[in-house]
Specification:
transmembrane, transmembrane helix, protein transport, single chain, ExbB/TolQ_transport, mainly alpha
Length: 228
Amino acid sequence: MSYTFQDAAQDLEPVAEEKTLSLLDLLFSGGMAGSIIIGVLFVLLFAAVYIYFERLFAIKAASKTDKNFMHQIRDNVAGGNIEAAKIRCAQENSPVARLTAKGISRIGSPLEDINTAIENAGRLEVYKLEKNVSVLATIAGAAPMIGFLGTVIGMVLAFHQLATSSGQAEMGNLAEGIYTAMTTTVAGLIVGIIAYIGYNHLVVKTDKVVHQMEATAVDFLDLLNEPA
């Protein structure tokens, strides 16, 4: 095979190198303002993940109740063994047991007073279940706005560079500053989406526990309304 002039020309052509950029470089190459905002978003992400899993485990623990719990309470109360019912409630560490214990402690009072005591105890249990969940909702709303703030700051700096250079700024530098600034919006949206999904999941889990407490309260009041 003969080596032609065309082959030599092809060998001499420069090979275009693909410019690669890692995720961390992309996130933290936006200058001081961009790095600060990305750092804030990372803190919010850590807080959202921590709150989600801490509340998830707490809600799961609160939802675990012995299936025979109310049957045992019913047998003890119907047999007049109130102390045994109180001891059984103390053994069951759950919101349902604490509501039942509150109702048992009011036996002998009018049903309206018992119902009020159970409702007040239920509000306290719901407050415990929803602890810090509102922070998760705040992160879900604030993170995208913080990310958008970083983008606006990046755009302002890019156009400031264009203005101070009398319109002679290199497009490569401008484009790099703009797409780097956009990463703050992407990061903010990611954090916001994660926090939003976690918040709604916790709300669903909490509602199940609340419905369980309401059903137990109704069963207990029905027990007291049964004829002797």
